[in-house]
Amino acid sequence: MPHVERGSETPESGMRMRWHRALGWSALALDHLKPVRVSLIILAVAVFVAIGVDQAAELFLIALWTDPNAWRYVALLATSALLGLAMWHAARNAYRLSYPRWPALQDERAAPLRDWLPRVLGALVPLLVCLGYVFALAKLPHGPCGVVTDHCAQRSWRALGLLAESAALIVFLTTRRRLWRAVAQRVPRMAALASRPQDESRVSRIRDLGTFPVVMYVVVVALNVLATVLIAFMPELLDGIGPLAILLIAATFLCYSGGLLCMIGDRHGIPLLTLMLSLTTVLHALHLNDNHKVRQYPTMSTHEPPALQPVDTRPAFDAYVDAWLTDRCTGRDPCPVILVSSEGGGIRGAAWTAQVLGRLTAITQPAGVVNGEPLFARYMLAASGVSGGSLGLAVYVASLAQPQPTDTSTLEARAQTMLSHDFLAPTLANAFFVDFTQRWLPGAWMDDRSRALTRAWESAARKEGMPAFAQPFSALYAQGGAPASLPALFLNSTTVADGKRFVQHPFQPIATPQRQPWTAGLDGSSWLDPRVPLSEVVLNSARFTYVSPAGTLEAHMANPPVPARMQLVDGGYFENSGTTTLLELMRLVRGRARLHGIALRFIVIHISNDPLMIDFIDQHDPAHPMPLYSVACPAAPGMAHEHVSGEAIAPLDALLGTRTSRGEYARVQLLNVMHPDAANPGAGDMLWHFRLCPGNYPIPLGWTISSPVFSELGRQLDNYPLQAMGTALREQLAPVP
Length: 737
Prior knowledge:
Number of strands: 10
Low-confidence stretches: 637-641
Radius of gyration: 30 Å
Oligomer: single chain
Mean pLDDT: 84
Number of domains: 2
Structural class: alpha/beta
Number of helices: 21
Helix content: 40-55%
Largest sheet: 10 strands, mixed
């Protein structure tokens, strides 16, 4: 550039000079961000997930508001500080190393950036946790804070604790050198530190960073490997500290170990992260490390192909229904038949379903009768569930099976105790240690995160005397020669290739060439082994997006169906209400009843869990004289309403919105196919809708729940006219003299 004398500078040349200076500073800043890119990626992903993913937002609410456990809050503070210190120390070490490809890192103009960026990264961690909590409060439905005083206070002071920790970190990181020098003056053997990070000498090898950094890298890498091995065999190892703390621990290891790999690669000019990403992409595309197999029997792992299926000993559905009708409907006209549909919704769907059914079972039991076959369960023929609703239904039926006879007064409490376990913590621990490691290895060697989830279910159920979760699904219906003793479960999954329902049940295949009961659906028993565990059937219905991976189902039998291999995801992908399968069950049962000359009266219990759902009963035809029960929900203050999506997001929003509309369509069809009795409405079909409203506490969607949420569920259930409902059911179900 030609020399321009002062005073002779033109506006055009001045603009070019400012432009060149801006480009120079931008290139300088970009080069200084490259050594700390792992930490920046972690922070960017954390911000995106906290703001854009509702299930992740609920983790902040649980940790900082609804969880009464003070030790888990201490663990959150400790792990936030741990990740902050890891980001700071990893960045500090990265800046001390010299890189031949980035000479701009030695530019003295950027010395303040090298001094302050590691400190800011470290102090940002607890601040971002607090901000994630604020965003969660703003977008998730909940009522005013004022019902339980201590938890309302907890909502504020826990967030303030994180802010104080962020301030403490920045103070410590800016004053530690001054403190070190003050101590070193009194202890001659202590090594002196430079007054500023920029004054420290740069090194060309990692081992020249000093004894402490090298020891730290060795210890962290060894602990990372040890944690991966232990979690592979004991996924519940980190239970008790909370899911958010596990995420922070995983990020700590990733920041430190990933930063070390980047330093090695950058020093030698090798793009290690790009090579590793390419490797995992190739392995994934070629299915060379698929460890997401659907378990076909209790001893099968998720990383091995299934053994040959044995002879099918499952009961036949027609025989089950015939035995049920003969036992329950003799002398009854019409015969009451209870059917249940339970919507998806993670742990809140499971807890709400189990709580509703447990309460209905208790209030319909005749006075003075505690033990024996519960009246409500006796006339509950079948239930259709999706995702979390499937888990709630499985908990209810498993608690009916063990112990016998059933004490109806304990059903609700047992379900609450079982579902109070933290199922998300072992799942996340496996995802970020075991599954993350498996993605870089050719071949399938370790069980995936879905197995960690089913193991957690099985362990929690076993503690409550419900071993059925770890046992074959069909065994519930083939014990003691009484196949009609328990309500039949129909748990819905979705196939990946064609988006059809995959209906799982404990019977031999119901669909035959002569009878196709499932519209746009597949009969799961044609593919599943007769020994498939109950926990795996529930998982197939509740394979949350990315939390539980798509399962690869391989049918290994003498005459395999077509296709013999498919992938399964959450049943809510097709429709989240479970009502479509319930409608088809009603047609099947009506057909069997006509063969026996039996008139039926359906009592349908529909359990939904979306606090923002519009109640379909509120909009039913008033000329439809059917006994209907529901409650009205108050408007949720401060919740986001309809919005207009951009052209890039609108197609995805529409695809996701269609599943909600399919559920709404199925619920309306349910109203249309039920048969009211105009002359005597008390003798016609009956529909009860148990819904959730935006409550005083945010009710989580993921796989962990806290005790105040159960209190909120109980409070909402008490809003229903339970005494009147119990009286009506007892009159309908009373034994025939």
